[in-house]
């Protein structure tokens, strides 16, 4: 029965090409930027190595994308517990055999590739929530009993990641999980109670759980001149970089702020300031617009999803991408404090690229399957 | 099919909720649009101008390194104020050559060197990092610079701190020296320190000795001053930029932590003068019985102050090419055959294993045959029938050849290893060598040959494969002196905050105690009593090999030793060492402790190419003298009147140790 339908339309026709085109657009901008940010800075390992490694991971990413498109996403949803369990295992393994860099242990070293389990945990979390939350209908909103399981599922990776310590990713996991629950609607009384508890917990965390450097970031956000050469300096220099791009930018590889190394981690977390400096308002808005288009297409796909799991999956991936771009661009333009969050599809990084491309593949898969009717 | 339809209806439950998502996307888009408009369109011109001149000048405020004190609070290493001249490349621009010309003249430096320095820094650190041209400026140089300072943009004279070693060459290998981090070390160190420390080109780091080991504690945290400047690099007060907030600011430097050592400055001084001052080459360590190092000397030495001001190329190459290796910390980095200083350790094993008793009389002639080889004593006539006590006092080889045969390598290995020979002592300093106590397994593994019975004889007199450092020997003798307590030597007593509040305190540690009834390795007290008495007689007996170093008011105990640098033919072994070329002369050892009856300090002295251990013993005498003068001045007036002298017919022998043994086929 299904076979006859597939026969009717070709495989290529069913793929959501608009969606893929937007992704390609962001990919191209991303590659140009990574090239610009790394060129001539040999202390980071050389342009060639970083740029070509990004190209390589992008190719692998697209392979993942098409593979995920062809496979029914429900297979992944069904396997969600296994994926979640394995990923959690990897996350715990990092604690014992992980590679330490910049004061945190986040990577598992596989020789040619450093795998960061906290990145793929985001997708695993979305998958398991899609599985767990799609079985029953709660039009009146989720009650306390319905919330226990998802909160436990969010809470475990959250705590493990925060322990690493990688507060940025932990916060991301929390945001993604909570966003999905919000989408599924939570009873109002619970919301009020949770808000109160949240405030209490945040206060507690401030005094007991946060590392000094994390507190420092908060302080410096409030008053950047506290640390003119440190975190506040990053924020100031990033704002100068973005602003100095003006309307059309300084041109490819002409960004003085980024080329003169005023910007730290300019090929990862600060990639957007490199772009803003070199391509100005036009370039910056192009990226913001492409992201907005991507999100709008995703909402469209979610609405036409053939089942609840598909819809939740799309919303989950949407929240991954949305929060990353929101926080990253927010921090680079001085709206938000400096947190180590990469910009999806643009920042340098293998695990991140693969994770994002794979999850976009899930969306494509949801879109692909809507044609079945 | 029906299933999909049902699911489709189910998914429709969410439809009303998508509106809020559209709103969220719209809101974000608008927010970023406004923010980017504000930064890039409204403030774009200002920020563009700012980025082009980047009118911020950063100046590093160097943190003073922590001060190093001796055990009584006397300063060993400190900081002195100095002046340096710097250049900010961003304000020099194209006039670099003319500036270099003028500065070169004022400083008596080649302008090409200055140009090269500036260009290298520009390439490495960008044009905004200030380049240090010269520090430790003389009065004349400052005067010359003051005249031209205002004519050349970017030139600056600044105060800085110089690391100063008031003891000069004394203790240089212990304290180490500081210098600018090298290009090669920079990435290695940053990798090593991770988040703890981010070094930059031009930073001063500890490069050797304690300065290196304790760098993280000593270095403090550099401050930074960020100033808005005009086009010529002069500070201005443009007020605040509303958009960027206050750009100027100062983060004061945090001084490094102070360090208190176990070293005693006076004893260190005495030891240095008696050893390096007398032209000895080698290593010397004196420590308290609990492992606290009192003096640490390695000779020849160098003046670490030369490094603080940037060592000249010629001096550096002189130091590294010196055949006597002044940069080497010989107390732990030179290991040699211990020679006869090994005998008390072998005696301990022989007594403890019941091979002999304190009264066993052994015939020790001038040579003995073992297998198909003849093993010689260093005394042509031998020593006749002697006890273990006399064997140590006279340093008989044949007596210990017999002990070596009777004990065998396995037992010797067990005892000697337990004394810590062949293992690193674990002292804080870097580059410690482990020495070597050979075993049949070791020989099989590294050389691939079976252990030969003849080698037991060599090991018994501290020759063959045996290698020890002066520090290891001091630890081993200290263990004999203290009935089997092997301690861990240490030199850092306390680390204190700049306000002199104690941060970390290091306590003495006993690694092994042979007297511990629960310990796996036990040696009886009586054994140690016998060996201790024998070593007392080495210095205080009438026939002792170090009797020339006897003190009136306190008894020193110890043992001399000679370590062959090269083998000589049988007819040459008795010829006088002093007549040989310097690098063919034997090393002299003297290891010991004092007072003999109630030991408080121990020492290990290796005098390379000094021919005889008795020469090293004279250094020990001075160390003990200064220790007593400082900590037990009341003893100076007393006279030791002990039964030490043995009522035997005195045979006139030279007061120095006889020439070393040789193996003859």
Question: Key features?
Answer:
heterodimer; A: mainly alpha; 16 helices; B: Penicillin-binding protein 2a (Domain 2); Beta-lactamase; 3 domains; five-stranded antiparallel sheet; 23 helices; 36% helix; disordered N terminus; disordered C terminus
Brief write-up:
By secondary structure, chain A is mainly α. In chain A, 71% of the residues lie in helices and 3% in strands. With 665 residues, chain B is an alpha+beta fold.
Low-confidence stretches of chain B: 1-6, 643-665
Tell me what the CATH architecture of the largest domain in chain B is: 3-Layer(aba) Sandwich
Through-space gap between termini of chain A? 12 Å
Radius of gyration of chain A: 21 Å
Number of domains of chain A: 1
Overall form of chain B: elongated
- Which two chains have the most extensive interface, and how many residues on each? A-B, 61 and 54 residues
Portion of residues in beta strands of chain B equals 15-25%
Helix content of chain B: 25-40%
What is the mean predicted local confidence, pLDDT of chain A? Answer: 82
Biggest β-sheet strands, sense, barrel of chain B: 7 strands, mixed
